[in-house]
Amino acid sequence: MITDEDYLYYVDRALDGMAGIIAGLGDRLAGARPPLPGANSPYALLTHCLGVVSYWAGELVAGRRVVRDRDAEFRSTGPVGPLLEKVAVVRAQLAEDVRAAVPGAGLRGTPPQAYLGPGRELTQGAALLHVYEELAQHHGQMEILRDAILAEQREGATP
C-alpha cells in the first residue's frame, strides 16, 4: 500500500499545478470563464477543490465539523492572493488528516447525495482516494480552462 508521503506527494502535485495556473492567470483572468457551455472559472474550480479536500478529509476522515456551500464554490471569485494562501492552509491540514487517518476504518459521517461522491460505502482510505481523484481530475480540467482563456485573450488582442 502507498505511504502517507506518497499520497501527499501526488496530492501536492495536483494542488501545486492548480495554484500555479491561478497565479499565472492573475487577478484579471483567474475568475474568467471560457466560452464553453457550463464552463467554470479556474478560480471557482480551485475553490471547489479546497471544499472537497476540507469536507472529505476534514469531516469524513478526521471528524471535524466542516461548513460547506458546494454551489457557492462554483460561483466564487476574488483576488488570487487570498486563494493561494487558503491553498497553503488546506494543504497543511490535509497532511495532518492523512497522517491521522485509519485507512480501513469507516467514515465519520455520511456525505450528502448531492456531493456526487462514489456510489458505495467508503472507508477513510477510499475517501482520501476520492480527494485525490477530484484533485487530479480538476487539475486537468483547469489546464484546459487556462488554455481556452488564454486563447480567447490572444484572439481578442489580434487586430
SSE map:
Blueprint: H1 4-30, H2 42-61, H3 70-73, H4 80-100, H5 124-157
Helix pairs in contact: 1-4, 1-5, 2-4, 2-5
Polypeptide structure, described:
There is one protein chain. Helix 1 runs antiparallel to helix 4, helix 2 runs parallel beside helix 4 and helix 2 runs antiparallel to helix 5. It is elongated, with a radius of gyration of 16 Å. It starts with a helix and ends with a helix. It has one domain: dinb family like domain (Four Helix Bundle (Hemerythrin (Met), subunit A), Up-down Bundle), CATH 1.20.120.450. With 159 residues, the protein is an all-alpha fold.
Brief rundown of the structure:
This protein has a single domain (4-157), classed as Up-down Bundle (Four Helix Bundle (Hemerythrin (Met), subunit A)), CATH 1.20.120.
Task: List the keywords.
single chain, 159 residues, mainly alpha, Four Helix Bundle (Hemerythrin (Met), subunit A)
Mean pLDDT: 94
Overall structural class, as computed from helix and strand content, comes to mainly alpha
Level-1 CATH class name: Mainly Alpha
CATH architecture: Up-down Bundle
What is the CATH superfamily label? dinb family like domain
Helix count equals 5
The level of helicity is 55-70%
